[in-house]
Amino acid sequence: MSIVISKEKKEVGLLQTVKEISGVDVAGCLQCKKCTNGCPVTALVKVPPSEIIRRLQLNAGDSILSSDLVWMCASCEICYSRCPMQIDMAAVIDALRMISIEKNAAKQKGNVPLFNRWFLKTISIFGRTYDLGMIAAYKIGTSSYFQDTDKFPMMLQKKKIALFPSFKADRKYVKRILKKKK
Questions:
Q1: What percent of the chain has pLDDT above 90?
Q2: Using CA atoms, how far apart are residues 120 and 110, in angstroms rounded to an integer?
Q3: What are the distances in angstroms from CA 25 to CA 69, 88, 105, 169?
Q4: Could you say which DSSP state residue 103 is in?
Q5: Residue 128 burial (C-beta neighbours within 10 Å; 0-12, 13-18, 19+)
Q6: Alpha helices (H) along 11-149
Q7: C-alpha dihedral over 143, 145, 150, 155, to 10 degrees?
Q8: Helices 14-22 and 89-102: crossing angle, nearest 10°?
Q9: Distance (Å, rounded) from C-alpha 168 to C-alpha 36?
Q10: Taken in order 46, 52, 50, 111, is the CA torsion positive or negative?
Q11: What is the structure's pLDDT at 85?
Q12: What is the pLDDT of residues 135-177, one digit of tens each?
């Protein structure tokens, strides 16, 4: 896939904003594409991780924010473990998500932002994830109340999901972390 860069003046600062939010300098990327070759979602996206980095380097503008990888990335950090320059692609993607939400850029189809919001909300309330609460809130948000309910008894039986939240985590500490991140 070729990268198209127009002669129009692009918004200056996306690269700098990503660097400030993520703490990652993508200028050192060698374009070896080890991140793309190891990425488990590359087959599902149109724009692979190496191209996101290249577009940032070339200041390709806000088109990066509407990339499908921004919302499909699983943050598994396989790209980071394979990168010879130790570029934390997951942090870059997180920064692009934040910027995309701030700018109301085109969002990927699906409910990833809703899932992320409820995931973080349960962490802020309980100090760790509470799967059942998160799933319930997500189901209400998507109006898919009975989808996948047949899997619930098996998950309970195998102890993959708990009925009640755990209060073992230090909630004040987690809230401080989340407040710092904002």
A1: 31
A2: 18
A3: 19, 9, 23, 33
A4: T
A5: middle
A6: 14-22, 34-38, 49-57, 68-72, 78-82, 89-102, 112-126, 131-142
A7: 90
A8: 120
A9: 38
A10: negative
A11: 94
A12: 888 888 888 888 888 888 888 888 888 888 887 777 777 777 7
Threshold 0.85, pTM exceeds = no
Q: Hey, what are 22's tokens?
A: 């993520």
What is the identity of the amino acid at 88?
D
- The residue written with tokens 């660097």 in the block is 19
pLDDT of 65: 87
Q: Residue 131: which of 103, 172, 106, 165 has the closest Cα?
A: 165
Place of tokens 């409820």: 118
Total H helices, total E strands in the chain:
10, 0
